[in-house]
Specification:
This protein is α+β, with helices and mostly antiparallel strands. 56% of the residues lie in helices and 9% in strands. Strand 2 and strand 3 form a beta hairpin.
Amino acid sequence: VERPGRRQSLGRVSDALVALDVLNRVFADAHRDDLASRLLRRVRDEASPTGAAAALSAVLAALESAASGHAAARELVQQLTDALRGIAGVFPPPRSAESAHVVASAFAGLLLLVPTIVRLGWLQALRKTRVWQAHGARTLTYVLAGVASELVGREGDALDPGAALLAGWIGEPDVAGFRRFVERLDGGACAELAHALALAEAHDATTLTTQAADRLVAEFAARIRGFGTAGRAFVVDKLLAVAGEIVIDERRVTVALAACPYHVALHVCSAFESLGAVEWLGGRELVFRPGAA
């Protein structure tokens, strides 16, 4: 049996609560006691003889008993209602479409690197390190923040929204936390991270970041016709340093990129294909809209 995801589970809980509230109102109305009986007859008449139909019949039979005044059945329905309300209370209320926000970025094209990061398996590799044991998921965030800063070529308190999102910062970037992380990385930790990411040996954060940025861009460019042997600066300038608008909502990140003469090459290699459930983006789908900004 397929296990539902969190959003699917929450939706089922919400639907169940609505249904049970309706049923409780039905049971309280003596003039509608035959509703469950009519539902049961319809299931028996129209449903195919499957396990699902049998299960429905059993459920509706219990509801029929409750509707007929069976005390134990009524108590069961009430207990189920209370239990589902308790479960629903564990989840935060779903955000509405109005909670989506739009950010402008001079480096929205950096998000084209996300599929390459997934393909390289950096998240899984970093999880096996002692650094991850100490810092958790922030390890990937801070590594990618260093890579993004290297590619953008800027340092300081401000980080371009596209660069921040590449690292997994949906809200305000924790630049201070990133700096502390870098300052505390000793030679052994840098060497471990370099090994995990299949980089050349590195014993300081600067070397680690440079090598990670080089490899990431090289792996990205290798799949694009005409860019396989291009240098990092050229690839960043022509393909990644593309402005755009990024729409972030509960379910997806949509990247609308400004028109670029090299988008044809990216289309050919399927660089704009959507990517589902990016873990460090909060499980959001990543969608590209080239030329839409």
